[in-house]
Design brief:
Blueprint lengths: L3 E8 L16 E4 L1 H4 L7 H12 L2 E9 L8 H21 L4 E6 L11 H10 L9 E5 L7 H6 L2 E4 L8 H18 L4 E6 L16 H13 L4 E7 L13 E6 L3 H17 L9 E2 H9 L8 E4 L15 H8 L5 E6 L1 H6 L8 E6 L11 E11 L2 E3 L8 H4 L2 E3 L3 E6 L2 E6 L9 H4 L10 E4 L6 H4 L5 E6 L26
Parallel strand pairs: 1-3, 1-4, 4-5, 5-6, 10-20, 11-19, 11-20, 12-18, 12-19
Antiparallel strand pairs: 2-3, 7-9, 8-9, 13-14, 14-17, 15-16, 17-18
């Protein structure tokens, strides 16, 4: 018989230490048939729908809330989301058999009243009469802060396994196929979790590097050993959420014994502790990195100045001027930076190509950075900021899909440095961002990257070299300098 599956999505990575909050107006919201229209857009929803079509499931699409990483979310947004979801759930249970629920989540979502949004969501679903034993499956971000409440509320949540997140759709497909397996076999896995006494800043969570590479390899080994374990998740954690569960975690979904599940978690935790120092990669002094780039030849692709402290994908404002200042200070030309500054874009609304312009850019989003910079340059062009991802497995495709909108945008040139100004923040995870604005990244000598890891898939293939630099900012890799209030005790590197 045809199975009926209810689906919903809630996606926000919440930075506890930035000034700007996140409100309903910041969310992109889809409801009902708009979720079904995501077929073909390479999102996690699209991945689920592929399996639903294969299985000939009847899909009840409820809602899909997504906002870019930023500060704590107004709790009213969560109330609205859950009211819609729980109303649909009750109606579905009342009108006929409901066979399961599939969710696309982030896992590091914090509101003004909840430090465990995903756990609270699952608890609320389970409290609906008739939903106590429904299969709940789903997919979530590798940078989640996983909790016991999440583990208790779900049967099987599957984490992305790659960072950059090139496999988000693939993991959605896997989670949906595991749901199909559960329905076909008539068995329900249960989840177990372990929060390790380790926290790494985002640059330490790239899966091409140790320690994450080693941990993912062990997780695949554990899955291959049988013992009833359907999936073993390595969770890098999100270090900028001030919550008790922040940091590295592991979870398994299993139909096997508790003892085997605990053994798997023990092995993963021990390895994380053994390799904890590797999760703190070194960073360059900004001026030293720029001067080294200046000494290089000018052909063969760009050198990257990677600035994790202004990591857009981590919730930073993406408008810091430190790297731009360094390029100008040391006379680097044929370079480029991207800065999110809607006010500066608006100030160029009447400028004509070739016109000399004077304006103040950047430095508005965080008091921790280098501050606004007044520049004089040449206006080159403007656009609506819309483009299509060149890479359908881009880091940012999971919730956004392939059609990207960074808002009205403008390009200016200052002393040989090309500056892309966008109205909305956009993580540098796809080369289409620059090319759509007339900037050819392969021809640059240097490019400033506001990211930690997510840029690698796009830029590693064209770069000549990369320098991760230490600058002040809200996504600093020096996490021991952040004012945590809720973090559990005895976590490395706070307690070495």
């Amino acid at each position: 018989m045809t199975k009926t599956i209810l689906i919903a999505a809630l996606f926000h990575e919440t930075h506890s230490f930035v000034e700007q909050g996140t409100f309903l107006s910041d969310f992109s919201i889809r409801r009902g048939a708009e979720l079904l229209a995501r077929r073909g857009d390479a999102s996690t929803i699209d991945g689920f729908l592929e399996v639903a079509d294969e299985e000939e499931w009847t899909v009840i699409p409820v809602n899909d809330y997504h906002a870019a990483p930023a500060g704590p979310v107004d709790h009213a947004v969560f109330v609205q989301f859950t009211n819609e979801l729980l109303t649909a759930l009750r109606q579905s249970l009342a009108s006929g058999p409901l066979d399961g629920i599939w969710l696309s989540l982030h896992g590091a979502h914090v509101t003004t009243q909840s430090v465990d949004v995903e756990g609270d969501l699952l608890r609320m679903i389970r409290a609906v009469p008739g939903a106590e034993n429904l299969p709940i499956f789903g997919v979530f971000d590798l940078h989640a802060n996983f909790t016991e409440l999440m583990s208790e509320g779900a049967n099987c949540l599957v984490a992305y396994r790659e960072n950059p997140h090139t496999d988000s759709r693939d993991m959605a497909v896997l989670s949906a196929r595991l749901l199909a397996r559960s329905l076909a076999e008539g068995v329900l896995p249960r989840m177990y979790t372990r929060n390790a006494p380790v926290m790494w800043a985002p640059p330490g969570t790239g899966t091409a590097d140790r320690p994450m590479k080693d941990l993912e390899a062990l997780a695949r080994q554990i899955e291959g050993e049988g013992n009833g374990i359907w999936v073993a998740n390595v969770i890098g954690g999100y270090s900028f959420s001030d919550v008790p569960s922040a940091g590295v975690a592991f979870s398994v979904a299993t139909t096997g014994s508790t003892e085997d599940a605990m053994d798997a978690l023990d092995r993963l935790e021990r390895l994380a502790i053994d390799l904890r120092e590797l999760g703190q990669p070194p960073e360059w002094d900004l001026d030293e990195a720029v001067l080294e780039i200046k000494s290089k030849s000018d052909t063969g692709g760009p050198y990257l100045i990677v600035e994790p402290s202004d990591n857009i994908g981590g919730g930073a404002p993406g408008d810091d001027t430190a790297v731009l200042r360094a390029f100008l200070r040391h006379g680097i030309t044929n370079a480029a930076v991207a800065i999110a500054d809607a006010e500066a874009v608006a100030g160029l609304a009447t400028a004509q190509p070739g016109e000399k312009v004077k304006l103040t850019i950047g430095g508005k989003g965080s008091a921790l950075g280098a501050g606004p910079l007044e520049v004089e340059g040449i206006f080159l062009r403007r656009s609506d900021g819309k483009y299509v991802l060149e890479d359908r497995n881009s880091h940012i495709v999971a919730s956004r899909g392939v059609n990207i909108d960074m808002g009205p945008s403008a390009v200016i040139e200052v002393a040989g440095v090309t500056i892309l100004l966008s109205s909305d923040r956009m993580a540098p995870a796809d080369l289409g961002q620059l090319r759509s604005q007339g900037i050819i990244p392969e021809t640059l000598k240097a490019f400033g990257i506001k990211a930690a890891v997510q840029h690698r898939r796009a830029y590693d293939k064209i770069m000549r070299g990369s320098y991760t630099v230490s600058t002040p900012g809200p996504c600093t890799s020096k996490i021991t300098t952040l004012p945590y209030k809720r973090l559990r005790p005895n976590v490395f590197p706070f307690d070495a």
